[in-house]
Amino acid sequence: MILLYSATEHLVAVTAGRTLRLDLTLDALFTAEDPAALLRQCLTGASPAVLPAKPRAPLQSQEVWAAGVTYFRSMTARKEESKDAGGGTFYDRVYHADRPELFFKSTPHRVAAPGEPVRIRGDSKWNVPEPELTLAINSRGRIFGCTIGNDMSSRDIEGENPLYLPQAKVYDRSAALGPALLVTDTPLPPATEIALEILRAGAAVFSGATTLSQIKRSFPSLAEFLFRDNSFPHGCYLMTGTGIVPPDSFTLRSGDEVRITIAPIGTLINPIA
CB-based burial of residue 261 (10 Å sphere; 0-12 exposed, 13-18 middle, 19+ buried)? Predict the structure, then answer.
């Protein structure tokens, strides 16, 4: 396993107890036929480095996409929020269907780095973070790693009408990625935990956890559907859905802090603007 951190003008790799500077771009990594092999080649002769004090989001030209309703908890939450709009059965159907729900999430300039604020929409009153394992997929559709993603969501807007999903999901700073990109030849084990903690004035107001074993769909299947009749010249990231949903009485407030932890990758921390 190799952890990659994005600094201002270079990448920093942490592997086997060493911290090394790489003269490699993320675009070159995502367009390589075998990103892990290219990375191992670049590690040879790399000079020592220190971790960036403020790592950037680990993306360059990559689009960010997302999968929805991949966990049972997500399906029940979507049905509940949209029941008055008559869209509740849509989520039950997609949860059990062969074809997954996939949607565009963000371009790089809309993505918040670790420590940077993510936003809640000014025209929404019910907002939550969605902690998600996020796949790194090269331009040929090959999964070669993962990071942590925060898929910010305006639940009242999507609940009013499922056709409003792009407005509920896609806006400035509606996503965060980081703190590092984990490059590995071995998928994370099903027991891997995703943990969410939301702090308000320094105190926890919500916490929850799930594991990758709870996701209904396989990661290769999600990637295959994403790349059907679609091209990603610079590769892409794919958020894989959330299994942690705060209660309906909860909404984020400006000044809150969202912490998402996936142990092999680290903790993604973002304040709420």
Answer: middle
Residue 252: CB atoms within 10 A of its CB come to 24
Strand-pair partners of 204: 199
| Domain contains 57 | no
In a domain, 56, yes or no: no
- Both structure tokens of 179: 């703190």
What is this structure's pTM? 0.94
Separation of first and last alpha carbons in the chain = 34
Q: Are residues 144 and 199 in the same domain?
A: yes
Structure-token pair, residue 128: 């939550």
pLDDT at 79 over 60: no
Is the domain of 14 the same as that of 127?
no
Question: In the prediction, which pLDDT does 9 show?
Answer: 87
Asked whether residue 134 falls in the same domain as residue 248, the answer is: yes
Spatial distance between the Cα atoms of 131 and 197, rounded to a whole number of angstroms: 10
The pLDDT score that the predictor gives to residue 92 is: 78
